[in-house]
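Format notes (please read before filing issues)

Several people have asked whether sequences and structure tokens are stored in separate files. They are not. Every record keeps both together, in the order shown below: the sequence lines, then the token lines. Line labels are part of the format and must not be stripped during preprocessing.
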Amino acid sequence: MRKERVQYTSPLDALIAVAKRLSLYENQQNMDSEDFFDRYSKAQLSDAAVFIEWANDYRHYLGLRQDLEKQLQNVA
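Then the structure lines:
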């Protein structure tokens, strides 16, 4: 499978794009991302490709959100 690298104009645009992908996973799997990631991290779910991609997107989401929160705190 070939991966594409997407560049966003801002961290907020990246966060929105990742959040949209997470929403698709949540709807397809009928589970929210936080619960999924907890179960996945505890090896309660398989290593299916969709779960690996979901976990990676969730990690990316958490990192983006943390970076944006730090930037907002520095502005306030």
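For reference, the curators noted about this record: Residues 51 and 63 are 18 Å apart (CA to CA). The two ends are 43 Å apart (CA to CA).
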